[in-house]
Amino acid sequence: MFQDETDQAGNAPTITSGEPLPSPGYRTGRGRTFRAPVLIGAILAGGMLGGAAAAGAGSLLEPSTGAPASVSSPLTAQVVVNSTDGVAAVAAAAKKASPSVVTISATSDSAGGTGSGIILDQQGHILTNTHVVTLDGQSASASIEVRTNDGNVYPGIVVGTDPLSDLAVVKIDAQGLVPATLGDSSKANVGDNVIAIGAPLGLQGTVTDGIVSAVSRTISIASSAAPDSSGSSGSNGSGGSGRRYRYSQPGAQNSTGAASSDISINVLQTDAPINPGNSGGPLVSSSGEVLGINVAIASAGAPTSGGQSGSIGVGFSIPVNDAKRVAQEIIAGGSASHGQLGASLADAQAGPGSQFTSGARVTGVSGGTSAAKVGITGGDVMTALDGRAIQNAEEATASFREHAAGDTVRITLIRGGKEQQVSVTLGSAPKA
Predict the structure, then answer these.
(1) In a domain, 29, yes or no
(2) For the ranges 6-15, 35-44, 421-430, which has the lowest average pLDDT?
(3) What's the CATH code of the domain at 188?
(4) Dihedral (CA of 78, 84, 90, 94) sign
(5) Which DSSP letter does residue 415 get?
(6) Angle formed at CA 427 by CA 424 and CA 431, multiple of 5 degrees
(7) pTM of the entire predicted model
(8) 132-147 mean pLDDT
(9) Do 247 and 366 belong to one domain?
């Protein structure tokens, strides 16, 4: 169904609310200033990311209050190549990928926001984020519109959402769609050149570039769209020392909703500038293949009153290999499954008083769960899953949940000072 390369040979962050950006002024050579339309920023959270560097993260949904979100002229969505002599690799990659990128507007009552998405197939399936189509969990039935790269606007329907991965599929009825070419995110290297395409601050068709900064990062986000897992039997509990980010709430000054649960996801990290409104858009390789779905950014400090924090070169993207599996399940049945071990976990410290962690310690096992069936017990420390190192409980939870329910994984653990390996068939995490 999808077009991919094989087919083609710390501390809890402080939550702050965003404010409307002032109308930016553009000055001409004659000294005259023209005003552009007001662009509404997203809510960003402040927190500590190592040492004294303050950082937080927010969703990349571009919010609005009252009126439906507006996007830029379709004329600005095209990738323009004014000179074919010595075209840069970024221009070539953008030219290939841009026809598959769309801008998504979601509105419900007085709330609204703009995000991005990618076309998966000629049947009109579009991959984006759950927080884009649910307005960060504020609406289960937002009105969806999709503007394609050629400027045409179509009504969209939500095929299904998956809050545990923050992915969703929207469908439009349109002809001549150009499916994105999906790459292999497992082959991404630190230092690879990548570009982000989307509608930051409503500016449709924006292209920025950078590199892959990390290929194995785990972030945890407090999501109002995810199910409340507190106190649930057999949950993969987190120790709480990992990085935690809260999604923005569109029109938060009018919102009374609150996050109900944390979601932990494994992501690619990039320094390609991405901003509110890039949510759901692609992170693309230098050959124009989609490597990830942009989902969140970190922001230095907290926005001041009347201001808005933006990209500081720390952005996060859901690996396309994981996103493709979730999208396929949503299209087939309206929802996606996620693996669950059935054990409560806490961070294992590297040593007495150490601020560093060295695995996920089992603090409890629920009867009849996958963990219980293979003899995992309290005190065991998990250090790897399928050969991928686990440094804390958050990473363990994210790694289990990026698998489908029923997958068999190999866990490396320490018991009584000795390393052991055990194969586990995962159960199913609760769905929203």
Answers:
(1) no
(2) 35-44
(3) 2.40.10.120
(4) positive
(5) E
(6) 150
(7) 0.79
(8) 91
(9) no
Is 343 strand, coil or helix?
strand
61 and 139 in a single domain? The answer is: yes
Report the relative pairing of strands 143-147 and 101-108 from DSSP bridges. Answer: antiparallel
Cβ within 8 Å of residue 196, ≥6 positions away? 207, 208, 209, 210, 270, 272, 273, 274, 278, 281, 282, 283, 284, 294, 315, 317
Domain shared by 240 and 386, yes or no: no
**414 and 307 both lie in a single domain:** no
* Catalytic-labelled residue, pool 279, 285, 366, 399: 279
* Least confident piece of the model among 82-96, 174-188, 393-407: 82-96
The catalytic residue among 166, 271, 322, 380 is: 166
Of the listed 125, 131, 338, 403, which one is catalytic?
131
233 assigned to active site? no
Examine the domain organization and report whether 397 and 320 are in the same domain: no
Distance between CA atoms of residues 17 and 22, nearest Å: 16
pLDDT at 73 over 60: no
Indicate if 345 and 249 belong to the same structural domain. Answer: no
- pLDDT beyond 60 at 304: no
More confident residue, 87 or 123: 123
Active site residue 131: yes
Would the CA dihedral through 240, 244, 248, 253 be positive or negative?
A: positive
Domain that holds residue 359: 339-428
Q: DSSP labels for 3-32? A: -BTTTT--PPPEE----BPPPPEEE-TTS-
Residues 321 and 371 in one domain: no
Identify whether the C-beta of residue 81 lies closer than 8 Å to the C-beta of residue 116: no
**3-state SS string for 187-241:** HCCCCCEEEEEECHHHCCCEEEEEEEEEEEEEEEEEECCCCCCCCCCCCCCCCCC
Q: How many residues in total does the chain contain?
A: 432
Chain segment 200-224, per-residue pLDDT in tens: 988 999 999 999 999 989 997 767 6
How does pLDDT run across 51-71, given as a tens digit for each residue? Answer: 333 334 455 666 554 444 444
Q: CA 156 to CA 147: how far, in whole Å?
A: 10
Residue with structure tokens 């292999």?
184
Name, in order, each residue with C-beta under 8 angstroms of 49's C-beta and a sequence gap of 6 or more: 10, 55, 243, 298, 314
Considering the domain architecture, whether residues 220 and 123 belong to the same structural domain is answered as yes
Which has the closest alpha carbon to 382: 368, 398, 406?
398
Q: Tell me what the mean pLDDT of segment 314-321 comes to.
A: 95
